[in-house]
Every structure is written in structure tokens, then in C-alpha cells.
Amino acid sequence: MKKLFLFLCIFATVHAISQTENADKEAILSVMKMQEKAWNQNDLEGFMQGYWKSDSLKFYGSKGVTNGWQKTLDNYKKGYPSKEYTGTLSFTIEAITKIEENSYYVMGQFHLVRDAGNADGVFLIIFRKIKGEWKIIADLSC
Q1: What is the pTM for the complete model shown?
Q2: Which domains are assigned to the chain?
């Protein structure tokens, strides 16, 4: 009887963890869908709402490391000054993997269809749940 009880406790715990992880992944995907929508409307400030609004945000791209939310936004505005450059963004998600409690990494591809020339690349971003919201705290895109 004790073994059956132990089995049921373990099963219930694993099931609860699985449900929590699925909910986390859905919430992270929701943030990324919001980012696609904002980008496709040429709304870079809206796109940046998926990022942690902190000087500790890290963005690593072709020009090296950028520190901070505002500097990252400024770089986006400089690199994508009009709809001709922002175009239409879509993400292909390859993996969403839990790192630790309230932290996941997301690996995937981005695709830009635009008048200034299409662009494709890969990314690895780290999400953390901060004050109840999923935010990107680090982004490596190339």
C-alpha cells in the first residue's frame, strides 16, 4: 500500500510540474507572438516590451554586446529606420528548455521578408519570469 501511495504522489508531482512547464512555454510563446505582431506593425517600442526594461539586459549581435534596454532599442531604431527595413518578421522555434525555476532558453530562427532585402538568422534568448511576467533578459541573435 505504501508503494502505491508513493507512486501516486510521484505521478501527481510529475504531472503538476509538466502542466506548469507547459503553461510557462505557452506564456513565452505568447510574448514572442506579441513581438512578431509589433515588429510587423513597425512598432519597435512595442517589440521591446518583450525585453527586460533594465540596464542589465544583454543583447549580443553582429556588432558585439549591447548592455541595457534603451541602448538596445536605440540600436533597433538605427538599424531598422522604416517599414522598408522592418518588413515582416516570423520566428521558427526549435526548442524551449527550462534552465531553472522561472528561467528558460529559447532557440530558433528569425525570418525577415522586406523591401530592403530579406534576412534570416538564428537566435538563443533567455527568458526569466520577473514580477509575474516573462521577459527576455539576454538575446544572442546572428
Answers
A1: 0.86
A2: 2-141 (3.10.450.50)
